[in-house]
Every structure is written in structure tokens, then in C-alpha cells.
Amino acid sequence: MKIKQNLSLYTLALITLAFAVPTQAQSDWYVSGSGGATFSSDIDISGTLNGKIEYDPGYNLGIAFGGKINDNARGEIELSYRTADLDTITVNGATNNSSDVEIETAAVMINFYYDMNIESNLAPYITAGLGYGRQEVTFGSTSGSDTGFVYQVGAGANYAVSDTTNLFVDYRYFGSRDSEVNNVKFDGYSAHEIRVGVRFGF
Q1: How do residues 63-75 score in pLDDT, each as one tens digit?
Q2: Residue 197: which CATH number?
């Protein structure tokens, strides 16, 4: 799909934006990868179609490059992707459970974290991020896309496996502005996400 073909462009943006992270000693830099479940909220639609879309649980993937700002704060540039298939769609009072509707969102985000350093291998954190996303909606053989502002907030915990390797699990609330695809207006997309990942320092 077009959105997958554009992931290389987002990767280029990821490398370019990486210079926004403050310069620290080499050991303070890291790369991470994550994946998990995405639970998309219902979306109201209007325009040439009027109704509501309900989605099945989907999945999310993410890669990030970041660095420490100080002992508690760090920043990163993240490239993420999430997708979900339709559960039911209600249009003008008629409900259909066709699986021909899919929503995909790719985003480049600047995230900031506050790590609560405690005398333990297990340490909680909170996070918030802003960025730019591309959303593609597919109706059978027809698809369209829109781009715009996206954001996320969340909380989680790190588990230090070694001085350079951390496992982490977190919850994130992801949201975007309203979008319009093929003259159909979609209320702002939002999703609850659970992620599990690993972070390598260097």
C-alpha cells in the first residue's frame, strides 16, 4: 500500500531530525524497537457517507533513536506505524461487518521522557510526544490519505538487563486531528496502545 512505500521517506526524516536531540557522551545515546497491540476508538464519519466505524484490535510497530538530556530526562525521534481492520461500519442506519475497510497511520514524532530513577533495576517513566503523521483509509479497492498533526502521551517502566540494555513496557494514548479522505470526513483518530520493546545504549 502507498503508506508502506512511504516508510523510507519517514526513515530519512528520522535520521534528519535526530540532530534535535542534545549532544551527550556516546554512552548516553540509544536505539530502540517496539511492538504491541492497538485498540482504535470508534470514528464518526460525515460528508458523502454518514455514520460510525468500529475497528478490531490491530498492532503497532516503532523504532527510535534518542539520547539523555540529564539524569532524568531524555528525548528521541520515533518512527511508528499502526493498523487496524474494520469490525463494523454503520452508514445511514445500516450496519455492515465487511472486512474491506482498513486504517493505517505512520508518524514521525519527537518524544520526551522523564525517568524516575530509583535504586532498582525496575524504573517507571512518563512520556509525551508531538509529530506529523500520514493516515490512509482503504475501502475495498479504493484508498485515500491525509496528513497532519499527531500526539501521544503515556507511562511505562524500564527493566535494566545490563548497563546498556533495557526492556520496557508502556501504555500510550495516540491521537490525530480530523481528516478527510475522498470527500468523507473522519473525526480525529485515537487509539490506546500497549507496547513492549528493547532499548540498546551505545
Answers
A1: 999 999 998 999 9
A2: 2.40.160.20
